[in-house]
Design a protein that fits this description.
heterodimer; A: about 450 residues; alpha/beta; Alkaline Phosphatase, subunit A; 2 domains; 10-stranded mixed beta sheet; two-stranded antiparallel ribbon; globular; B: about 450 residues; mainly alpha; two-stranded antiparallel sheet; 4 strands; about 55% helix; about 5% strand
């Protein structure tokens, strides 16, 4: 059964094709913008210095060895001070369910079937609102002051095409022709020409927000594979065997080739130990939700990679869930929100346990919100302003923009009006978190108000 | 003293010959350096021939016999080396595994690296295999004939723009590499003017294009040749492509280049000046014949008493298949060798593979996976009987690999692993079940040990 709209499926398919082929869009509809990064050259590449299989975009003619040395140098330099993680709720998440005006009769009138019962999950900053019952983890994060909520973020005259609106968010401008992502343009200014890990998509293919014009970026498909297994060996014997690799590599030798072979054997042993956390639960200081989906593993792996000092600066990935809930919204939304919010809480706890929490800021966004009035099929249609979050130990933890309410807060189409422009958020992130002038990165940056993000 | 022109015997007399005991250890090293390692029992058999007889059996082999079953893919179908991706690699690997003339095959590999041509630029497995036959045919013959044949070889003509090089529009690609990489060495006695003039001398080759087949009908077309006067290495003449080759071979820098480069494939440290000069004399007085030079190198004391060399990935792989008497039965050997850094017919560039950098953490994992893949079909099951004794298990695992001679450090590490794993067996069922697992692990660890990675 399919609950999303046709345009959503088509958009997802087309984008996947673009990302995989790295060039040209197949028969795209007139008027749809090309995603940022379309046409960037793509190369598979094994980053030997860190044992990761990557797809590298925009590296041009750079030899793998140069990229590898770039990564190794960045690794040696200790990695970046700040990390930005961009997490996308794909399909247009329903802000009016995520944080809903439970006491408002207008809400019950617009949503006779979908209005949620009082979850009891109070939103401390606005007594009108309650958290979705599946989003208790968001309430926990918010109550600890580690989650800033953007209850109505967007832009005026919101485009209601998944394709176009997502593109606007990705490029940081309402410009269908822009071909670089907002984070890509940032990386072009501050990045290095040889470290593709500076901008990493964890979704396995290019993330348009990260699409650069000059410097290389990369895609990593989930967990790194640097594990050693041998046929007919398991259990305690296997553990002993893995330790024995280190023992084989430990002795020194005056013979250069034997010395090299031993040194590499030992390095491989060490690298396996370092990358083990990306591979299994083992080594992760906190428990992540159990799921068939890769999302919890992606963030667990990310925390482990950051802890290992990998030179990753801007990271993009999609959250778990299908948020284009034209029908069957109650179950679909609850399912997506539960795993996504629980995973984000686990990620925050993981970063705290690893002493990394002060270095990481996570931005959660969606291409739009949904219509205030429900449709006739247990769902909602495309809206305008939607919900966003900033998560981290250094965020202010207070609302950015207010909830406009359903009386006077809706536009002529019955969609929520934005109380903060997403480009204000981008400019503020660039200047306050990444420490760079937003002017050259976000078109028309001076016309967007800055909002205080950090404590 | 210039030894050129002296009779070969006199040159040969100045080259030291190994006088130590030529036992199984020496025969084993010889088989790894001049071939693809021993089949079970082969080192002992070769040792009985003594050094002279052993080297002679390699440099003057009988007619080739292919031992074992013909190569098949994962579906047990005959491989399709001309068409299927990666089957070209399987085809040659099969020759390395089954041949009764290992040195001929090893020399073909030397020439593949020396005249490194990649199908990345050629785009035809058929033409690559045609070049491969050429390299094998000239394996131990005249280097002059080899160079002449390579110069007009279709794959090389495509790879280094030979058929783009025509009168009035010379292309310097081949002429430059012929001097820099194939015959003289960078900056060793030629000028930019020589490069331009060589390019003119090499004009005249062409081919047609067939939309179905690709490049066809390679030929020399006098009307595309620049017949004018050229000045190469200070000599004037209406030189053609054969002159270009012969002038390079007779250039005073060639013999030292040839001898040093050839030596480096067998012995990791350069020859003494006296040995090098004697080898040069042997080379020129035998009319640029490869065989006597290889023979002298294979008898040199440094090969047996000097430092080790890291085995190239395909040698490592072919050697394990020979040791276990396994034929080609999976396409995995192509991608595994690729991951280990050496896919046949795809050298990284025209200067060939970098023999100094075979081993790193990524290629170590690939070698581990190669070993595991070799061992998989013959892994011991838990129901198999094996002694609960570290020393005996190690002896059995060594025996499995044909009794390779290990350093004492490696021996200790392996034995200590086995002893610890046995100590873990605190119940009767474990005492029965662990030994075959330990034996499997020992086989794996021996195959990836620094000792086995080198020879």
């Amino acid at each position: 059964m399919r609950d999303c709209c046709n345009e959503f499926s088509r958009s997802a398919l087309l984008r996947k094709a673009v990302a995989e082929a790295g060039s040209g869009l197949p028969g795209i509809e007139p008027g749809m913008p090309l995603p940022a990064g379309t046409g960037l050259d793509r190369r598979s590449f094994l980053a030997r210095s860190v044992g990761l299989a990557l797809a590298v975009y925009g590296a041009g003619a750079l030899a793998p060895r140069v990229l590898d040395e770039g990564i190794a140098q960045a690794l040696a330099a200790g990695g970046p001070d700040t990390v930005l993680v961009s997490i996308f709720l794909d399909g247009g998440a329903d802000s009016l369910s995520l944080l809903f005006p439970h006491g408002d009769p207008e809400y019950r009138r617009l949503r006779p079937r979908l209005a949620l019962p009082d979850s009891g999950l109070v939103f401390s900053e606005d007594p009108r609102l309650r958290w979705h019952p599946a989003a208790a983890s968001f309430q926990t994060l918010h109550s600890e002051g580690k989650l800033s909520v953007l209850p109505a973020v967007g832009y005026t005259n919101a485009d209601q095409s998944h394709f176009t609106s997502r593109h606007y968010w990705e490029v940081g401008a309402t410009d269908p022709r822009l071909r670089t992502g907002w984070l890509g343009r940032y990386l072009d200014r501050v990045g290095t020409p040889d470290n593709p890990l500076q901008g990493v998509s964890l979704d396995g293919d290019l993330s348009p927000s990260l699409a650069t014009a000059k410097v290389p970026i990369a895609a990593l498909s989930g967990a790194a594979d640097y594990s050693f297994s041998a046929p007919g060996v398991w259990g305690p014997v296997e553990s002993r065997m893995l330790d024995a690799i280190g023992a084989l590599g430990a002795p020194r030798s005056s013979d250069p080739a034997l010395g090299t072979a031993r040194a590499v054997t030992y390095q491989s042993h060490r690298l396996r130990q370092q990358l083990e956390p990306f591979d299994s639960d083992f080594g992760s200081p906190v428990a992540y939700p159990q799921s068939e989906d890769g999302f919890p593993n992606q963030l667990r792996g990310l925390a482990a990679m950051l802890a290992a000092g990998l030179p990753m600066h801007c990271i993009a990935l999609s959250a778990y869930g299908m948020y284009d809930t034209h029908s069957d919204q109650p179950d679909r939304l609850a399912e997506g929100l539960k795993l996504t919010s629980d995973t984000l809480l686990a990620f925050q706890r993981d970063l705290e346990a690893r002493g990394l929490a002060n270095r990481v800021l996570t931005l959660v966004w969606s291409e739009f919100g949904r219509r205030a009035e429900e449709n006739g099929s247990d769902g909602t249609d495309h809206g305008a302003a939607g919900i966003g979050f900033l998560m981290g130990s250094r965020v202010r933890g207070t609302m950015i923009g207010e909830f406009p309410g359903l009386n006077g807060g809706l536009d002529e189409d019955g969609n929520l009006k934005a109380t903060v422009d997403y480009r204000s958020v981008y400019c503020s992130v660039l200047e306050q978190w990444l420490g760079t002038d937003a002017g050259p990165i976000v078109p028309g940056a001076s016309s967007f108000a800055r909002v205080p993000l950090l404590r | 003293m210039d030894t050129a022109g002296l009779p070969s015997l006199s040159s040969a007399r100045k080259i030291p010959v190994f006088r130590g005991r030529f036992g199984p250890a020496e025969a084993e090293r010889l088989l790894w350096r001049a071939g693809f390692g021993p089949r079970p029992g082969e080192a002992k058999k070769l040792a009985k021939k003594g050094l002279q007889g052993a080297v002679n059996s390699l440099t003057h082999p009988k007619r080739e016999r292919l031992v074992g079953h013909a190569p098949v893919d994962d579906d047990r179908h005959a491989i399709a080396p001309l068409d299927a991706w990666g089957h070209d690699h399987l085809w040659w690997l099969d020759r390395m595994v089954r041949t009764s003339r290992p040195l001929v095959e090893r020399m073909a590999l030397v020439w593949h690296d020396w005249f490194a041509t990649s199908n990345e630029g050629v785009g035809s497995q058929k033409l690559m295999l045609r070049q491969n036959r050429l390299l094998r045919r000239h394996a131990l013959g005249s280097f002059e004939q080899l160079l002449l044949s390579v110069t007009r070889d279709p794959a090389m003509l495509l790879w280094l723009s030979g058929t783009d090089n025509e009168k009035g529009a010379p292309n310097e690609n081949y002429g430059r590499e012929m001097m820099e990489l194939f015959t003289l060495g960078a900056g060793r006695g030629y000028t930019e003017r020589d490069v331009r003039e060589q390019a003119r001398a090499l004009t005249g080759f062409r081919n047609d294009w067939d939309d179905d087949v690709g490049p066809v009908n390679f030929r020399y077309d006098p009307s595309r040749h620049d017949p004018g006067l050229k000045r190469i290495f200070g000599r004037r003449g209406r030189f053609g492509w054969q002159d270009a080759c012969r002038l390079s071979i007779r250039h005073p820098s060639h013999r030292s280049f040839f001898v040093s480069k050839l030596w480096s494939y067998f012995i990791p440290t350069p020859p003494s000046a006296a040995t090098r000069r004697a080898l040069e004399g042997l080379y020129t007085s035998n009319n640029y014949s490869v065989r006597p030079v290889v023979e002298a190198i294979l008898k040199h004391p440094r090969l047996y008493t000097g430092p080790r060399m890291v085995k190239p990935p395909v040698v490592y792989l072919a050697g394990m298949l020979r040791a276990t008497r396994r034929g080609i039965d999976t396409e995995a050997w192509t991608w595994l060798a690729n991951q280990a850094g050496q896919q046949l017919f795809y050298p990284p560039n025209v200067s060939g593979w970098d023999d100094e950098r075979w081993l790193d953490t990524a290629s170590f994992l690939a070698r581990w996976d190669i070993a595991g893949r070799v061992l998989r079909p013959v892994a011991q099951k838990t129901s198999d009987k094996a002694p609960l004794d570290a020393g005996k298990l190690l002896a059995r695992a060594l025996d499995f690999w044909g009794g390779p001679i290990l350093t004492s450090a490696t021996h200790r590490a392996l034995k200590s692993f086995a002893a610890q794993a046995i100590a873990d067996a605190d119940r009767n069922w474990k005492k029965a079940q662990y030994p075959p697992l330990i034996e499997n692990a020992l086989r794996q660890l021996i195959a990836v040990s620094p000792d086995w990675q080198t020879s």
